[in-house]
Amino acid sequence: MENKHIIINVGRQLGSGGHVIARMLASEFNAKLYDKEILNLAAKESGFSEKIFEQNDEKKGFIRGLYNMAAPHVGGVYESGFSQENLFKFQSDAIRKAAAKGSCVFVGRCADYVLRDFENVVNIFVTASMHDRVEQILNKQNMDPSEAKHQIQQAEAKRAAYYNYYTGKKWGHAESYDLCINTSVLGMDDSAKMVAEFIRKRFKM
């Protein structure tokens, strides 16, 4: 694929296959994929434990989770006036530094907002039917369908609150993205191909 520097941000519903689509796009455009990897980079940026970012990933009000941690430096976090916004800033700085190095695909974490001033950015949202998303959860975890649906609804409420709080946009609403795609319609492979073709036309590649 061409060596054009592009940035692809992928928002996703839980169980929709958004990470799979992101991985396919990273391969197609020879781009670095960042999902939870960005948490490690943010930890290095801040000097704080990666667990702080992992345990509270994409959750509004996540700084409260530090109260329940046994890490010896947690008290110092509060004494220094460390806040939810500080953690978001460290993560955002890590995202911007990664994006500046070359073509990237970012999964979630408000990357579309963080990188809004970068050139050659495209924002994608991946959805799927509730039935298919429940099936994805059941393939990975031993629970009944009602529990899987409840898990999806809880996780997405937290994800939406986090995104809406920091971006001023609405998570999952079409106007917040350049392209929204339902993987239940075409399947994973054809959905990825369609998104890739959209990106080529978007950037005249």
Fold and architecture overview:
α1 (18-28) packs across α10 and α7 (130-140) crosses α8 (145-167). The chain has 10 helices and 5 strands, in the order βαβααααβαβααβαα. By secondary structure, it is α/β, with parallel strands linked by helices. The chain is 52% helix and 12% strand. The chain starts with 6 loop residues before the first strand and ends with a helix. It has a 5-stranded parallel beta sheet, with helices on both faces. The longest helix is centred in the last third of the chain and has 23 residues, at 145-167. Residues 62-81 have low confidence and may be disordered.
> Which stretches are poorly predicted, pLDDT < 50 over at least 5 residues?
62-81
* Helical segment count: 10
Q: What order do the helices and strands follow?
A: EHEHHHHEHEHHEHH
Helix percent reads: 40-55%
User: Which whole number gives the mean pLDDT?
Assistant: 84
> Hey, roughly how much beta strand do the residues contain?
5-15%
Structural class: alpha/beta
- Number of extended strands: 5
Spell out the key features of this protein.
205 residues, alpha/beta, five-stranded parallel sheet, globular
Topology:
Blueprint: E1 7-12, H1 18-28, E2 32-34, H2 37-46, H3 50-54, H4 74-79, H5 84-101, E3 104-107, H6 111-114, E4 121-127, H7 130-140, H8 145-167, E5 179-182, H9 183-186, H10 188-202
Parallel strand pairs: 1-3, 1-4, 2-3, 4-5
Helix pairs in contact: 1-10, 2-5, 7-8
Summarize the structure.
52% of the residues lie in helices and 12% in strands. It has ten helices and five strands, in the order E-H-E-H-H-H-H-E-H-E-H-H-E-H-H.
